[in-house]
Amino acid sequence: MVFNSYSFALFFVLLLVLHNLPLPWKAKKINLLLASYLFYALWNPPFILLLWLSTVVDFYMARLIAREQRSAPRKLLLTVSLLLNLGMLSYFKYGGFLLENFTALLSAMGIAFQAAKPDIILPVGISFYTFVTLSYTLDVYRRKAEPEPSFLNFALFVTFFPHLVAGPIVRPEDLIPQFKEPHRATTQQMTWGLFLLSLGLFMKVVVADTLLADSADTVFGVPFPVQPLDAWMGVMAFSGQIFCDFAGYSTCAIGISLCLGFVLPDNFRYPYAAIGFSDFWRRWHITLSTWLRDYLYIPLGGNRKGAARTYINLMITMLLGGLWHGASWNFVIWGGLHGIFLCAERLIRDWSGKRQRSFAEQNRSDQVLSGTVAQASMVPISWNGRLGNFGLALLTLFLVDITWVFFRAPDFGSAMRILLSMFGVIPNGAALLTSLDILKVSSVTVILIACHWAMRNSSLVKLGARLPWWLLSLVWAVMLILLILTQKSSNSFIYFQF
Amino acid sequence: MTPLLKSSLLTLVLVLTFVVGWEWYWRSQNLGLSYNDDESLWAHTRKEIYRSSPSRPVIIGSSRVKFDLDLATWEATTGEKPIQLALVGTAPRPLLTDLAKDPNFKGTLIIGVTEGLFFAPDGSFPEREATKRVNFYPRWSLSQQISFHINRVLEPWLYFLDEERLALRPLLTNLPIPPRPGTWGGPKFPKEFSIIQFDRQDVMTDAMVADTAIQHQVQAVWLDIGAHSPKQTMPDAMVTGILDSVKKSVDQIRARGGQVVFVRMPSDGPFYEAEKMSHPREKYWDRLLAHTRTPGIYFADYPALSKYRCPEWSHLAPKDAVTFTQDFIPILKQKTGWPIPIRPTQKPALTASLPPHQ
């Protein structure tokens, strides 16, 4: 069930009524759990078995791990949990990819091998709920958290429908404590939740699906070169589309949870105003980047084992982060590019830090004599000013957009063709996008960048409190009216495929 | 009352006011109520194919069979309503392949042939669009089915729930923005052209039938499409490849006891002339029948079917569709020998085929 569907609207209204009836808290939690299973089963009922398997195994494995004091059996139990979770993920998500590459490798070695193409359907949300259950088991193993005694609380933590299929990737401490006490939304939470739901749907249905998706699909869908303007517009369209699609989903999820009285963590913080790639990853898919940081980068050694290992750890984390998105070399390249940019940024920061320190020392000793010379040799543009920062944010977005080419293109050849078209390397490309397409993409891009920049150091909650109530209402009404004008759109969210 | 609550109440008032005003505006435009001919409506109709029979055939093809075969008239004549699966502007071959591969389909199939679309190469837009529908059907989730049934309750009451004509996307597309040289945004049909009924029947609106200016607009759209269509002749090997794949599918259906007929619906004026030039009958239609060894009905061969004029050169007006269908059924029965029960001619069923609120 997708949030942008009539079936969800009906489901949500019925659930809200049920959740606000004077029932015992346990009964309400059972309602939420059953509703979450229904929410999931309405896609493809058999896949609910995988969800159950993952839930049951991790619940009992975590208890056994917590009870066991000896190191070897604890490791063995953890391995069983990891094998099951990652095994399922690998089979469903990477089975075909591994087989394809294995066949290609044998072929390169001159061995003729033709495997039957596996007909594997990817269960919706498997990448997300696998990471949710893994974080629980790993936290218990690392004695960071106690195992949850209530199966109901644990099952609801894994299955709670707002985050189940596309995040935010919740941690045990985010949600389980909230299930221990009765929760019902206050009027304030309910209204703000509905506002967030409207905003999320507006971003998804109006902006991503109606204003941007067609242009991105057109440019990335043709097998021939296009004009530089078309290539750039296609990439910017996808850049806006993926943000509005995914952040729209997260906003809906947070809003829906709030209507039920639960708080989910933020997943996006105006990423297209990021200054640099480390800032970008503090703002884009925050729950995934913190997951990778805590369960992969830091266990690999993080930045504690010297400069070289830090760069290696960064690259491993980003390459695997790329692969998490899908079984394709293009995702690996996307992750690799982000890794390279992160490493480059770290290198520049270290180098400029050293330079500043040595300059400061030198300046102190020659302060009187060469003050004028030092001032004259400084760069005329201050990168610390607001304009300089804006320039750096645009540079970051430019590089992020380059990486999106690999993320969106169906294969490496197409990605290279788009890139070469963007920079005018391939002459005589086709003109594809109409005046209206160009108008839509450029307007949305400018508005998106302006909004992100204006909101860079703020939040929606702060903005909502600052705006006059009638102005907030006007904005809300315009979003809903455009949503109604756009009409039913039951397109899946892009991140469902991951 | 908190400011947030005040905001939400004002929002509700503004949105309700807009919805009422918007609905009133579109009702006052006399465009007629039209259903969304989307994937779900197609999938809902596709579910019916297992109950097909000579009097209740499955129809695939492009827009002409959707306009010209009046389903209500068919029902009034034979006692049963056909299952309309044709898709506007698409090649029916992916649908034919799909039906041929479905082991449970053993019914009767009418295939509408508009040569330019029927012979559209694999990978072309008309072929891809039809393939999308075919691929959607097995993935039609329970959730989408529930949404479809809720939409089905709302659609007859709300004119503005018309994705094809009144949603944000078509409204933006129709903005008078100067075109970018070298690009084409696709055909822009006037809103008054046609409406779609729940049984997937396409019907020209009263305004379209009455107003020659609107008819000229649609004619201009056909010319526009023609100007943007590939000009090169199809290689013979490609035609043969298509014929082979069609024959394979037809044979598969026949092997299970099913029956197939090809039909060529009327076209008119410069459109028909252009079609005769681009797709000569002997090279396409005659070869299709011979290659697949399947009966076919070409409108021009029958005075009863060729007496009609198409207001915009390509489709029949609703009144003509009624008599055309009445004339077509006996010809079909005679040509195929299918046991189609034909009731004595009744009053034209045009009123039955008009949508509610008209």
Automatic annotation (TrEMBL), chain A:
GO terms for cellular component: plasma membrane. InterPro entries: Ac/AlaTfrase_AlgI/DltB, AlgI, MB_O-acyltransferase, MBOAT_fam. Its main location: membrane. Belongs to the membrane-bound acyltransferase family. The keyword Metal-binding does not apply. It is found in: Cell membrane. It comes from Larkinella humicola. Keywords: Acyltransferase, Cell membrane, Membrane, Transferase, Transmembrane, Transmembrane helix. GO terms for molecular function: acyltransferase activity. This is MBOAT family protein.
TrEMBL record, chain B:
It comes from the Bacteria. It comes from Larkinella humicola. This is Uncharacterized protein.
